[in-house]
Specification:
heterodimer; A: 113 residues; 6-stranded mixed β-sheet; 5-stranded antiparallel β-sheet; 11 strands; B: mainly beta; 4-stranded antiparallel β-sheet; 0% helix
């Protein structure tokens, strides 16, 4: 039962353009959503998060959008840079229980110079 | 250091042996989590510690897995009688915790466990 889904295993974007990574979820109890970036042989690095009471959160080149009615969130990176090439994981936390994060399977983003 | 520290970074062992994985969380973080990532998969929750409360072990896949957290800081994940399906990257994370609202979890670099 995959409660957090990232349906695109990979994405290639030209340097300077916008990268859009998508994530869908099924559990309506999720109230906090996060994006992590992961380089090979390193742990995930926290990028940006959003609470379910908001629909947008922006931090520099990164913006996360949340559409609760569609149970969909997206991460926009603009402009995309070569250092953004990594695997991006979407994660969600329920407002009940132990604060564990439920992760998607990741999207590998490649920025083409 | 300032981040979550895990050791060893790599561990290769024979099937049937026991292994211990260590995690040093960020200083002052009361919440500590263990996850694992199998090849091509997302991160799978294993266990959660919050302060002095009883840990939430709901993610542990079998009774061969156990974890301790001593003095509210360092944690050890133990896998007994390892099997080949235990091969994965084991990741530890910590967060401020304590019911202080939405706080991100910060991860270590993981231990890559390979069972021969």
């Amino acid at each position: 039962d995959q409660q957090v889904k990232q349906n695109s295993p990979s994405l290639s974007v030209q340097e300077g353009r916008i990268s859009i990574l998508n994530c869908d979820y099924t559990n309506s109890m999720f109230d906090y959503f996060l994006w992590y970036k992961k380089y090979p042989a390193e742990g995930p690095t926290f990028l940006i998060s959003i609470s379910s009471i908001k629909d947008k959160n922006e931090d520099g080149r990164f913006t996360v959008f949340l559409n609760k009615s569609a149970k969909h969130l997206s991460l926009h990176i603009v402009p995309s840079q070569p250092g953004d090439s990594a695997v991006y994981f979407c994660a969600a936390r329920s407002n009940f229980g132990n604060e564990k994060l439920t992760f998607g399977t990741g999207t590998r983003l490649t920025i083409i110079p | 250091g300032a981040g979550v520290s895990q050791s060893p970074s790599n561990k290769v062992t024979e099937k049937g042996k026991d292994v211990e994985l260590r995690c040093d969380p960020i200083s002052g973080h009361t919440a500590l989590y263990w996850y694992r990532q199998s090849l091509g998969q997302g991160l799978e929750f294993l266990i959660y510690f919050q302060g002095n409360s009883a840990p939430d072990k709901s993610g542990l896949p079998s009774d061969r897995f156990s974890a301790e957290r001593t003095g509210g800081s360092v944690s050890t994940l133990t896998i007994q009688r390892t099997q080949q399906e235990d091969s994965a990257v084991y990741l530890c994370a910590s967060s401020v915790g304590g019911g202080l609202g939405n706080q991100p979890q910060h991860f270590g670099d993981g231990t890559r466990l390979s069972i021969l």
